[in-house]
Amino acid sequence: MPESVAVVYFSKGGAAARYASVIADELGAAGYDVTTIDLRDARRLALEPYSAIVFGTGVRIGMVYWRARRFLKRKELLDKPLAVFLASGIAIEDPDKARRKFLDPLLAKRGLQPIMAVALPGMLPGSGGKLEDRTEEEKARAWARDLATRLL
Ligand SMILES: Cc1cc2nc3c(=O)[nH]c(=O)nc-3n(C[C@H](O)[C@H](O)[C@H](O)COP(=O)(O)O)c2cc1C
User: For residue 144, which of 38, 34, 14 has the smallest C-alpha distance?
Assistant: First the structure.
């Protein structure tokens, strides 16, 4: 039986959703049994069926989305292999800075030690509220291929 992995995401502009999809794709290709879950559709998401969790979300106005911060409080995440990705504007220029600024403090606050955590380039807010797509799918694919070798 392949190990079952949940790729859970919460996205507003679509970048984390896109990354969730390609990450799920790569993990599936590596032989995992992958379920992709949009937190918006999951009222009471049971995590017991999954042997590992990949979680992705975004950040706006200096704050990781509230639904995502609430999800990261779940106690089950302390007992399973976890990997986290973040879509961010800052990550377009400086992924490490975005990870240090938004992800690391949040994960530390929750006592989480993911096996991998990454910030990936997201949608850049432009004039008139338009979002410019600066996502880089290949970065997420490479990250997921690396993750596939470390997950379990
Ligand atoms: C109103 C607004 C505020 C934003 N604020 C930040 C920010 O403070 N820091 C940052 O790195 N990116 C910021 N961004 C860029 C988002 O992180 C980016 O759009 C990312 O794709 C969000 O993830 P999502 O598309 O999955 O919702 C902002 C975007 C918008 C639209």
Answer: 34
What domains, with CATH codes, occur in the chain?
Answer: 4-150 (3.40.50.360)
Burial class (CB in 10 A: 0-12, 13-18, 19+), 131: middle
Name every protein residue with a CB atom under 6 angstroms from any ligand 1 atom: 11-16, 58-62, 87-90, 98, 122-123, 125, 131
- The string of pLDDT tens digits covering residues 72-130 is 999 999 999 999 999 999 999 999 999 999 999 999 999 999 999 999 999 999 989 89
Measured between alpha carbons, how far is 103 from 90 in angstroms, rounded to an integer?
A: 12
